[in-house]
Amino acid sequence: MVKCCSSMCLCLVLLSVFLCFVSTQSAPESAIVTQVPGFSGTLPSKHYAGYVTVGESGGKNLFYYFVESQGNPSVDPVVLWLNGGPGCSSFDGFVYEHGPFNFEAAKTKGGLPILHLNPYSWSKVSSVIYLDSPAGVGWSYSKNGTDYITGDTKTASDSHEFLLKWFELYPEFLSNPFFIAGESYAGVYVPTLASEVVKGIEAGVEPKLNFKGYMVGNGVTDEEIDGNALIPFVHGMGLISEDLFKEVNSECNGNFYNPTSESCYSKLAKVDKLVDGLNIYNILEPCYHATEAVNITESYIRLPSSFRKLGETEKPFPVRKRMFGRAWPLRAPVRDGIVPTWPQLTSLQLTPPCTDDELANEWLNNEEVRKAIHVAQKSVISSWEICTEGIVYYHDAGSMISYHKNLTSKGYRALIYSGDHDLCVPYTGSEAWTRSIGYKIVDEWRPWSSNGQVAGYTQGYDKNLTFLTIKGSGHTVPEYKPREALDFYKRFLAGLPI
């Protein structure tokens, strides 16, 4: 009897060891990033990078960079981050916004940028997956050229397949709360992907994702509302006169995005001319024009600090001189059909203002960096660029308002945030469409605070839908206001009031 009990105890111990091993199965070793070129310290958490193959033909290889939480990665939320474009790499967010590092220019020409730990990295409170999507963007590629013709619905389907396969590779994170976040054209990527995720959950697709909600920053949403947001914004910001505002309203009858008369078009052209010299991504920041940049920057620096404080960032290194948002050229909201990528726009002699992505290019195209983060050989993908012209992209999902309404009505939490000095996708549009859904206001317009200061304003609706502004921020909120961005981010993930 004693021998039998001993055997049974031994079996139970072995079973428990086996179950522990299964439940703590770790990420693939081949994906571990052991060192990050340009950074000389100890990584504050584990990093992984590599490819996940998706698509019916198995030819699409989507690249990801995964940063484990610096807090408690076994329980902290996992967040998928998507940049917009369409056609822009999510390393945009990694390098310039909320990644684990701040990037400083190399000391010598052609050298590697110097990396420092970012005190406001979103990996302080969550694990973050930076995904290059769709295939053809960033380090992602396909063996089939036809895969570079895509659109909203196909991108959402592929990204959902990526997530299912990613969580199979990293099963230890499957029970963690999962969120999707992004900005600009990811105002389309995020809700369409979230809808695919929810459909999968409801259909019993395995693995079952622990999806809790999503965030969209200065996001493209609805053709009419986005298109009509510019005029109220420039008027409210004092960029056009009261007289011109009245004239535009009178001639256009509130329809600013699709002028139907010559007189309306003429008034809108006058508005465009008045704001032409501004940095549309943040009207408080200087606009850089090639060789003129130095003079503008110097004159800006000479301004008294009280004049500059609102637009400044707490980052120890300068805000970059470029970013990409789909609302430029002005009054060009996203419509159904082909959406021109940024390089395609520039080939038409349309030059987006304030463009310079030198730091990201220098770092990501460095051979050491490519090897360290497991990028495919140069024979497969020759180089990285922040936004590609190598895809043909169709906007085929229509307005995002119905997606948001469907998701929030099912109980998924949504945070719609806007830098309030972004002329590219103005907060006036985001405020208008969140209000248009018709939910009851449960948290009336009020200030929210960060570091003891008013950081912006928020309005909360029924069904866990929240609209939030960030005072003095431009198009890419975590870049302009990193402390404030981390504050609202961690509160939202934790389900706390902002």
From TrEMBL:
GO terms for biological process: proteolysis; secondary metabolic process. Keywords: Carboxypeptidase, Disulfide bond, Glycoprotein, Hydrolase, Protease, Secreted, Signal, Zymogen. Its EC number is 3.4.16.-. Its main location: secreted. It holds the Pfam family Peptidase_S10. It comes from the Eukaryota. GO terms for molecular function: acyltransferase activity, transferring groups other than amino-acyl groups; serine-type carboxypeptidase activity. It is found in: Secreted. It is an enzyme of class 3 (hydrolase). Residues 1-26 form the signal peptide. InterPro entries: AB_hydrolase_fold, Peptidase_S10, Ser_caboxypep_his_AS, Ser_caboxypep_ser_AS. Belongs to the peptidase S10 family. Probable carboxypeptidase. This is Carboxypeptidase. The gene is LOC106774334.
